[in-house]
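User: Structure tokens for this complex, please. No commentary.
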Amino acid sequence: MQIENHIRSQILIDALPYIQKYHDKIVVIKYGGNAMTNSELKEAVMRDIVLLSEVGIKVVLVHGGGPEISAMLKRVGVESRFINGLRYTDEQTMDIVKMVLSGKVNKELVAALQLNGGKALGLCGCDGQMIVAQKLESEVDLGYVGEIKKITTKPILDALTNGYVPIIATVGTSETGQSYNINADTAAARIASCLRAEKLILMTDIKGLLKNKDDENTLIPAVNVSEVAYLKSMGIISGGMIPKIDCCVEAIRRGVKRTSIIDGRVPHSILIELLTNEGIGTQFT
Amino acid sequence: MQIENHIRSQILIDALPYIQKYHDKIVVIKYGGNAMTNSELKEAVMRDIVLLSEVGIKVVLVHGGGPEISAMLKRVGVESRFINGLRYTDEQTMDIVKMVLSGKVNKELVAALQLNGGKALGLCGCDGQMIVAQKLESEVDLGYVGEIKKITTKPILDALTNGYVPIIATVGTSETGQSYNINADTAAARIASCLRAEKLILMTDIKGLLKNKDDENTLIPAVNVSEVAYLKSMGIISGGMIPKIDCCVEAIRRGVKRTSIIDGRVPHSILIELLTNEGIGTQFT
Amino acid sequence: MQIENHIRSQILIDALPYIQKYHDKIVVIKYGGNAMTNSELKEAVMRDIVLLSEVGIKVVLVHGGGPEISAMLKRVGVESRFINGLRYTDEQTMDIVKMVLSGKVNKELVAALQLNGGKALGLCGCDGQMIVAQKLESEVDLGYVGEIKKITTKPILDALTNGYVPIIATVGTSETGQSYNINADTAAARIASCLRAEKLILMTDIKGLLKNKDDENTLIPAVNVSEVAYLKSMGIISGGMIPKIDCCVEAIRRGVKRTSIIDGRVPHSILIELLTNEGIGTQFT
Amino acid sequence: MQIENHIRSQILIDALPYIQKYHDKIVVIKYGGNAMTNSELKEAVMRDIVLLSEVGIKVVLVHGGGPEISAMLKRVGVESRFINGLRYTDEQTMDIVKMVLSGKVNKELVAALQLNGGKALGLCGCDGQMIVAQKLESEVDLGYVGEIKKITTKPILDALTNGYVPIIATVGTSETGQSYNINADTAAARIASCLRAEKLILMTDIKGLLKNKDDENTLIPAVNVSEVAYLKSMGIISGGMIPKIDCCVEAIRRGVKRTSIIDGRVPHSILIELLTNEGIGTQFT
Amino acid sequence: MQIENHIRSQILIDALPYIQKYHDKIVVIKYGGNAMTNSELKEAVMRDIVLLSEVGIKVVLVHGGGPEISAMLKRVGVESRFINGLRYTDEQTMDIVKMVLSGKVNKELVAALQLNGGKALGLCGCDGQMIVAQKLESEVDLGYVGEIKKITTKPILDALTNGYVPIIATVGTSETGQSYNINADTAAARIASCLRAEKLILMTDIKGLLKNKDDENTLIPAVNVSEVAYLKSMGIISGGMIPKIDCCVEAIRRGVKRTSIIDGRVPHSILIELLTNEGIGTQFT
Amino acid sequence: MQIENHIRSQILIDALPYIQKYHDKIVVIKYGGNAMTNSELKEAVMRDIVLLSEVGIKVVLVHGGGPEISAMLKRVGVESRFINGLRYTDEQTMDIVKMVLSGKVNKELVAALQLNGGKALGLCGCDGQMIVAQKLESEVDLGYVGEIKKITTKPILDALTNGYVPIIATVGTSETGQSYNINADTAAARIASCLRAEKLILMTDIKGLLKNKDDENTLIPAVNVSEVAYLKSMGIISGGMIPKIDCCVEAIRRGVKRTSIIDGRVPHSILIELLTNEGIGTQFT
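Assistant:
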């Protein structure tokens, strides 16, 4: 890009207060949606993370992998079944989920970050008993869909201390060794709170919370968690936004300083959110 | 087992010199064959490793996963093709190999070790650029079958330092991010030499090197690497034994103190090899 | 001993949960009686301690030395006098006690442990002011029989940190430099509680606490300290057992997790107690 | 500045390889000229240094202070006398030089850096015997003009380790305690080489080395030290440039990787030099 | 000095309990008066400090520099004006104060200590934001006379940890970067209390607190801070003694163990105070 | 002692360069003779050592105990027999030697040093296998008189690191556990060289090396080891001095910087030797 040097330097200087703010702090990023499927966006995310690491911010990347799971299930002839937006997970499905998430998606992310100059370590919930899970109790049986019982932060902190970006596949393991499929948003929120993260970022395919969900110009840039109930009652928080925002609220309640829902469709949305004045998306505090 | 206490204590005492010998030393175990497919043998291996860790031996577990790979390939309708005993690995196959090894086999081993009271961390060749690979040059094109260019020991040593048994899936990654299928025996030998391991153990489904390969009573318990050429010329080392023994020789040449080919069909063969006087199988020095 | 390897390995595996339980924990052993005078038993004790150290248990050995003291006193023509089971200790006797305990018995134990492959450091109460003592107040004057005023754990912890088994002769020193003869059971109990030991083991020449003291088949394997008063009132705890069990009770009250009275006449009784399911003797909790 | 976020993020990303290159490396900056007298430029320099520190670059700031010294000398009625471009330094002058450099200029820089969010520690050559000096031998007596005999890097490294930007006033002290006036360019070059700095930057009031010194469009962006003799013979390096470029050459010879002469009149010239592709000024390698 | 060796050794031995008492403890010395202007006394002070450092006492030296400031002000033609014993400090004066204190006096002390074999680091209030100051509120405007808002002990502790004697010029800096002239006695007292010093020593030109201020034989060797109010009411503490003794009282109240006012006119008064039985001057506890 | 403070302080200051010289350095003192039997001298030695420790010198005390051994042997009716000045050591004698040295003399020294405010740890040759010994080969059989095969410095260095003065009884132990009687001068010299000591001091009951052995005014204050052969040939070094001086020469040859033979009959001779200009006795370099 042909930009004059005085603009370049000014922009770097403008980022300084934000770099100082997050220096040596933990930022947990839930990675997903278009930012993960579109290769250009993916490349931009990898660069963002390498830059953040390089300037002293401790990034933890948490990912799901819905589309790749569905593709693999289809390939082996297992039908994907969703109940209330959650994938029904029988034993066969669980096997595929685990393989795809921790053997394919996770490892591809590790390789991609390293191609961009970063250092990464892929972790799955079973490594060092990081995500101890149990069956999610619900009215309808969901099979091996799990909920988090306990997070062991040691493997994550070890990776950070040793200079790696931990990249986490959200497969949990029960105390008897059974694998469970864990929602990645929930896992990211829980990991962020156990790490006392400075910030949790959920990447989505929407602009953020909109006053009028059909008008992207009505973005609500900041929400206090105390306002969430009201926004739900008004129908402003609705549908698929509810569980995501519940994650944000829960994370804040358990000690994360700030959480943001950002638009993963915008290249470098993570950098914009963390290192510019305006940020992007909706921030909860 | 109903054994008198004085026998119990004597046996523990008998193990003492061997515990002292390997205390704080690195032992690399290549895990495979029946010991991996038979669930009782697998359980025994896990217990052996936990015991060895507990008495201060630094175990590194390296594994392949041929049968599970073949099963998965079959399930997605990809034909397994072998050329000179090596799996021809096209792009589709590589994808499945990676998923199965690092997403299924590796994670199951991590969970199994932890179920038995150990602490484990699953690593794949891409994590922390542990196994840097390149295409294996050979007369016949083998696709994405790779050879090791460089081992980065840092992620393995970090795991040991942090108190974990590193469990390694032998998928390598090239400097441009391409995955390669790496022979697990070769990888174990190379990792052992880069770690300056005290011992490398290759688990197999044979008794060891036999003078007469049809008579299990003709086991050769110890071989000096200088005798290998002669044993090959005599046909005593032949067939599938050749690459395994070449691994042993290569490891010794590059600085591993001892390597053994042991019979994985015998329960607790690792313990017997490491903590008893007679050992088991054939040891190369 | 000709034992099949599968039994050997099974027995090692059986010990695993106990090794895990005491790993990195402090175990204080009061060594005395037949286990100290019989050379075969002594050899077995030394091996037990080396094994325990090697598997990561922090052993502290506390010893007395009655028979050797008596022999030396006799040799220099000083009459041994006992009042209520305690040796009357005049200045001459104190001199001999100190010399024999810290110059002979202690140093022989250090050498014996090292002959068996261990690393040991002999400590006497004066070293680093480890056992600060004062005259034991009693109705009958006992001369330089002392009681413990304060334990300085630093020299013991330094020795453990530097990789040695501290072997402790229980001669105390007052703040004015006077030596005092300290009962080894009491010293072991007090040291164990100051070190917050996981376990205190008192080696004796009896099977443990017996319901019927004439019938070794009536061993009481476990006692809660709250039951001790009752057992005393019933005469089950009586005679020479009273001070030993008082030591156990006192140790538990001051923070030691478990204490056992074990039969030192059984070879490897320490290993059996610590690393087998049944244990040996009577355990107080 | 109103700049679109995608440009902001792109520019940050563009800086990434340069941040990686200098991460944890030492960069010595000789600060002087307009960049020091013009308050806006000074502010920009301070921000640049804070940003560089924040992204993990270890900056060492070395400064002179000619104009302030001249002003103070004038105020106390001491005439400034220059011989071959070097200030003749009698005892009175030396006193003023020391006071102004280490008591005024140095402390103002420390305060300025901290006002911009940095952490700074002011050091003078006598602190921790950092700059050991002796009288500069020359044909004409220059009084207390000194040359460096030895650099003690400990106080500089201590400051960096403790998280400060060391700001260095170039007053040297002889072994008998006599202060000497040291040329700041020379001191910066020597300090850089003793610290094995990755880069030395000399800020000047010219664009860099020009082929035609009257035409700023003839900047020579890169020079290999082997070419310097030729450039001098051609008159391209001449006049006041000679000692500066000699400093650069000397620094490279003694182990500094790169040195640059940059235009301090351009705001953020340090950032542009370090974190952009083109850089600014003339780089010697 | 021709002194017999047995006397030499006895005197060293006599100092032992005092060396033990202050070993590894922090002693803050406010240096001033004749001890600073007389070169022989100054030499003795430097030696005392080097000796104290060498025997393991952590000395922090705090100094003012009134006479040198006045001389410089006179030289640049600025009139010294005192209001209630405090120097009225306009901008010009502040500039001179800062230069003289941190650029001349401080650096000369650093050099002098090093000439005597010590290691010193000169610090000014702005270094590492050590002395954060604000305008002293008083009835009459005093210009840039400041009071301490906060002490950052990190740069002082860093210097001690790195083996230096920190020598502190008491110029403070406000949060907006403005310099303030801080009374050195007050600064020493505040620094001592923030460092939880074992002792604060104020060097003066009087013998100590005298019952009859005209008779040096009426020295009061020890005062409890609770007696100060009474001594003031009796006029025994009066005039210039009042602020000094208020510093002592304040320091004791804020956690310093002991403070002494000693006679800087006596050579080696610091050694005598710290390492002899009688001490010198008046001690407050 | 009534000494004026200015003399006291001057003497302390006079000691400063010597304190600096030995700061953090190891000084090995062989303690014996009158300095050990006379209680006032002993007290002075203890104080000297505490003072030296306190000012940062790492003292290692090595002792014999001839008179106490002889007394004890007499008491138990074993005749002392000397061959060429070396005690013939049968098994009974060895037992007594060990007991007296490590159980009586050593422990009394530990207690004495601590009574004077020091921290001490008693070590015998068997502790941590510090002195590995073997039978001294000689024409006449000397029984269990041993020579040093190897010094393990770890227990000594551990003690110094943990803040103790190691006090060493020179009983050696062979690899098979046999105790040997080791000459204390030789042991001190060997320990000093293995520790790369700055100085070895041998305390004796003579003034030093005398030109005329009947005239104490003919002390030779300094000898270069190259002159020793000549001094022997002249008969100046003769009789009991020969082995002592051979120890000094050997120590210097093996890396000790300086060794001195000092007069232990002079109170505080150690302090005088180490901390005054003239020293005392004869120094070998």
